[in-house]
Design a protein that fits this description.
globular; about 260 residues
Length: about 260
């Protein structure tokens, strides 16, 4: 049997409440093929999680949760409701994007916050949330794996990590992390799937994972990916926060077009 079976990458209650999906999960549980039914989401998820909390069908939710959401009360309200409904909440994308802090910080702070300080601080922040059950931080080498595992033994912030979170520049820079809320889509005259393009950029430029970047890009529907951006000389898409959409799409075009 499998402990958890996920319905992956959903973005709406219509998907999670699909009668066919629910019937399949129910049957698999009755046959003891799975212990827990879950879903994962890369979209802005408060409404999705609140719906799941009210229906109490799913046991586990895998969702994006990181310091970029620290001021978003809707996020914490939804987490609380799901937690009180007995749903296990597993955080992913916990360390945000690995380059978000570099572009808006003085050189001396860039050097200070590189490496384990930033990564461990952000992972601790996610795990210290009382509603989060556990996390699945990514890693691409053994050094990162060891840094992630070390956090599990001690969630107390070090002095350097406290300085990291108290930095005004960090709080400003964190606003360049995409929440995949989708509000930017209406600002693109060609209807590009900007959230998934930002995910592609995240995997490529920030996580250093070209395979996931190409896979994410390939799954964008025709007419909504870089094919509609190729001939745009000026990107008019805008983020309600501070995500530099035009810059990131230009970098994607340099890589893939």
């Amino acid at each position: 049997y499998a402990d958890i079976l996920y319905y992956h990458s959903v973005s709406s209650p219509e998907e999670t409440n699909d009668p066919f999906i629910n019937e399949a999960f129910t049957e698999l549980k009755e046959k003891k093929k799975i212990r827990f039914a879950g879903f994962s989401t890369h979209s802005y998820w408060p409404d999705l999680v609140l719906d799941a909390a009210s229906r109490k069908f799913y046991d586990v939710i895998l969702l994006t949760f990181n310091y970029g959401m620290y001021q978003d009360q809707k996020v914490f309200d939804a987490l609380k409701q799901a937690y009180q409904a007995g749903i296990g909440l597993i955080a992913m994308k916990t360390q945000c994007q690995q380059d978000w802090y570099k572009r808006n910080l003085p050189v001396e702070q860039q050097k200070f916050y590189e490496g384990a300080i930033m990564n461990s601080a952000l992972l601790k922040w996610a795990l210290r949330c009382e509603y989060i059950t556990t996390a699945i931080p990514g890693f691409t080498n053994y050094q990162q794996l060891n840094e992630d595992i070390a956090v599990a033994y001690d969630l107390e912030y070090t002095k350097e990590e406290e300085q990291f979170f108290n930095s005004r520049e960090i709080k400003l820079a964190i606003q360049s992390v995409c929440r995949h809320c989708g509000e930017c889509v209406s600002t693109c005259p060609n209807g590009a799937d900007i959230p998934d393009l930002m995910r592609t950029h995240m995997y490529s430029a920030s996580y250093g994972n070209p395979l996931m970047a190409r896979l994410t890009l390939s799954r964008i529907a025709e007419g909504r990916g870089l094919d509609v951006c190729r001939d745009c000389s000026v990107c008019t898409s805008r983020c309600s926060l501070m995500v530099p959409i035009a810059d990131r799409i230009r970098e994607l075009k340099d890589i893939y077009c």
